[in-house]
Amino acid sequence: MELLTSQWLQQHKLWMYNFAEILRSNPETGFYEHKTADLIASELEMPGIEVQRGLALTGIKAFAGPAEAPSIALVADMDALPTAGAPGGVAHSCGHYAQVTIMLAVFRALVETGFPDKNHVRVVFLATPAEEYVQLDKRRELKKEGKITYLSGKQEMIYLGAFDDIDCAIKYHSMSETSDFPRRTATINGILNGFSAKTALFTGKASHAGAAPDQGINALNAATLAIQAIHAQRETFLDSDHIRIHPIIKEGGTVVNSVPDRVEVEMYVRGATNKAVIEASKKVDRALVAGALAIGASVRIANTPGYQAFHPNKAMGEFLGSATREFVSENEIDFHDESFASDDIGDVACLVPTCQLGYGGFSGTIHTASFLPLDAERAYLEPACIIGRTVELLAGQDGQGVAAVKSSFVPQFTKAEYLAMLDASLSENVYAGGIEKLQR
């Protein structure tokens, strides 16, 4: 099979590099990617493409090829991230603009070379909002207003049916080439942790911090004790469960000379399996309650569903691995990557066979202002060629590869079971403070 997709990408690489810089220069946070959506939509205005906009507020779904044919989705995240040191405090410090650029370029290459109709395959481009599970207060407001049902872009798009007609999905993520990832150009089907999101609101009693601290109940002391109690649990976590717990204090008091009566702590509880996350979450709740109890404060613990652990499809990984070997030497490909980060592509992979390419071309540390493209060809063109070639191999003649992948796939949930699981993960419990009389 001719590498028509790669040829198109080579011929249009300057457009790709320019579009990437435009997106990178216009970072927007989750569910508010309005300009990003406009920029993407402007590149999809061509014959043969059907476009849906406004999915999960800003998401986009574009189709090309016969409606009844086996379908391959090219999935990309749209959102940027609040980032310390970045202009305006927001940056594409996770490289999502590169995902959009690469998947959009591959989609256009396939359409403009006539690939879907020639091979009787349906190609779908999905730009999904709000992958970063942050700014939850804003998202809860959107939910309260009835604008969204779930707090993640892919969760919301699954709920809305955007993945109902997808037979398999391909994702890509940028990687750093500094000391974090020496001698590694590509990862194939690396696994990711899942997580649960948790907010703890400690409530005490205000008083003058100098003149009458004895008359107050210090909510900050309760929170810091709770965080130390969480740390004390770490030796009980199995290494194989990949547990990661990382709290931040979002609100720690009003003024320094008043005893803090309200302190908010937010955290993720990450783990390699849903069972591991649930067990670790129980220990965290005990620690939170213990901190409140020790000081006589109250604590309200709110849980929201985070993401499922990402378990990529092995059959799709074979196609992705074969495509990558055509562009990268074997000793630079990692087939056994285990990351403790998380991504809502894990939720998609529970329902649809999914694979992911990780690729270098970036410097610095991810989720910081230092995460920047090193070289445009490595950052954009090379992974785009690999993704395009993967689609070509998967499609074969009349989508035979897609059909084989789909027939062997056993979903973790039905869609109804998945949504029920998300709903069941929502909980809120209040533990009143103080013990008036200790029992012997």
Task: Give an overview in words.
- The protein has 440 residues and is α+β, with helices and mostly antiparallel strands.
- The protein folds into two domains: 4-191 and 310-409, Zn peptidases (Aminopeptidase), CATH 3.40.630; 194-307 and 424-431, 2-Layer Sandwich (Alpha-Beta Plaits), CATH 3.30.70.360.
- The chain is built from 14 helices and 17 strands.
- It has helices spanning 4-11, 13-24, 34-42, 96-112, 115-119, 136-144, 153-160, 219-232, 274-295, 314-325, 345-349, 376-395, 400-408, 415-424, and strands spanning 50-55, 59-64, 71-77, 81-82, 90-91, 122-128, 168-176, 186-188, 194-203, 244-245, 248-251, 262-271, 298-305, 333-334, 354-363, 372-373, 427-431.
- Strands 1, 2, 3, 6, 7, 8, 14, 15 and 16 form a nine-stranded mixed beta sheet that branches. Strands 9, 10, 11, 12, 13 and 17 form a six-stranded antiparallel beta sheet that branches. Strands 4-5 form a two-stranded antiparallel ribbon.
- The radius of gyration is 24 Å and the shape is elongated.
- The N and C termini lie far apart (80 Å).
